[in-house]
Design brief:
Length: about 400
């Protein structure tokens, strides 16, 4: 075997290990929502994310323009199979196959689609019919991926809201709601079999907003505080985010899935809100997101799972002006609609702002030659590995 052949096989083995049901290779990702008519183009978003060194994103659909724009970027994407599609996909594997062939397969391997989120916050909601079709839909998506040789490259999952829990305080007492368990346990059994993690949307902001009299704002935003003590585990928590993650681990353990990983699919803090939305202001949003970013970049675990680095997707990339609901819903963005930063937490915007230098200056100082070489190598390696993996798997 020649050196070049050996090198290719070595990299191929590494690829299989790295991408086996692993849609999130880092610890800090972001949700790229687009319910707006004034945000930057997908091409500009790629530039923004690269400048911010964000390599993992979630989108809530499989938008063609977005997936094309991210081709060759190296950014790993989880695409969304919307709630409105679940009933159709649950009917048969052929429906799932058609969806994947239209929305996923054409963009591989240039666009790094690493996961499909089947639905969003279904269980714990009011639509019983959607709860019933979630598992069949997820199974059909996975079966279609298997037939296409993509099941070891693309993870199948489904994000949940805190509404799936009966209680979450203290963390060790957390358990799934009784009416949710009939759907949750079979879903977890399936995800356990295929190696998928448990995705939870965890918002200390929402907890504080709903009960500001009894929740310490410092505890919710990672600032110095007395914290809480969990008597059952004898663990101390100095922030609500870690407590929410460990509550999910406790619920999984009680349901019979102690080895399943927890990933936070959404978390964030609103920079504006209505009068009755306690804590929704720029100061608190900046404090939460700045401290959360520092916490995630340390790649450390929680008190209950100290050896499992916490991974989270921040909500959200932009303020989305067309989102319905209270004012806070339109003001979770780390960036404003024009691409400038909403507040300073260490990122650079697309355009100058009072708190940040422009991305134009950043790009002038970059080494263009190195960027082009890396882009080409990334695209070539992805193509080679993808072809070989499909043959071998």
């Amino acid at each position: 075997m020649t050196f070049s052949s050996f090198f290719l096989w070595l990299l191929l083995i590494f690829s299989v290990i790295s991408f086996h049901v692993n849609a999130f290779s880092g610890t800090y990702g972001i949700n790229y929502g687009r319910i707006a008519d004034n945000i930057p183009s997908p091409e500009s978003v790629v530039t923004l994310l690269k400048a911010a060194k964000i390599k993992n994103i979630r989108i809530y659909d499989a938008n063609q323009a977005v997936l094309k724009a991210f081709s060759g970027s190296g950014i790993e994407i989880i695409v969304g199979l919307g709630n409105e599609n679940l009933k159709d996909i649950s009917v048969g594997e052929d429906r799932a196959m058609n969806w994947i062939k239209a929305n996923v397969d054409p963009y591989l391997p240039g666009t790094k689609i690493r996961g499909i989120a089947v639905g969003n916050e279904i269980l714990g909601g009011t639509d019983l019919e959607l709860s019933e079709v979630l598992l069949p839909a997820a199974k059909n998506v996975y079966s279609a991926l298997e037939r296409l040789g993509l099941a070891k490259l693309i993870e199948v999952s489904s994000p949940h809201s805190e509404a799936v829990f009966a209680n979450s305080f203290p963390p060790s007492a957390c358990v799934f709601r009784e009416d949710v368990s009939q759907f949750m346990k079979p879903l977890l059994q399936f995800f356990s079999q295929i190696g998928s993690p448990f995705y939870i949307n965890a918002y200390p902001f929402l907890a504080y907003k709903n009960d500001p009299e009894h929740i310490d704002l410092n505890y919710a935003t990672f600032k110095s505080n007395r914290g809480i003590h969990d008597a059952k585990t004898n663990l101390h928590y100095d922030n609500m985010f870690d407590a929410m993650v460990d509550a999910a681990y406790a619920a999984l353990e009680k349901a019979g899935f102690p080895k399943m990983d927890v990933i936070v699919s959404e978390t964030g803090w609103a920079s504006r809100g209505d009068e009755n939305e306690a804590g929704a202001d720029v100061k608190n949003a900046k404090t939460y997101n700045k401290n959360l970013r520092k916490r995630l970049l340390k790649k450390k675990g929680t008190p209950y799972r100290p050896k499992k680095p916490v991974k989270a997707y921040i909500f959200a990339l932009f303020n989305e002006n067309l989102k319905p609901g209270p004012t806070s819903e339109r003001n979770f963005g780390l960036f404003k609609a024009d691409g400038s930063i909403a507040y300073e937490i260490g990122f650079t915007g697309l355009v100058p702002s009072a708190a940040s230098p422009s991305l134009h200056s950043f790009k002038r100082s970059a080494n263009l030659h190195s960027s082009v070489v890396l882009f080409v190598l990334n695209l070539l390696l992805d193509s080679v590995f993808f072809s070989l993996l499909q043959i071998l798997l």
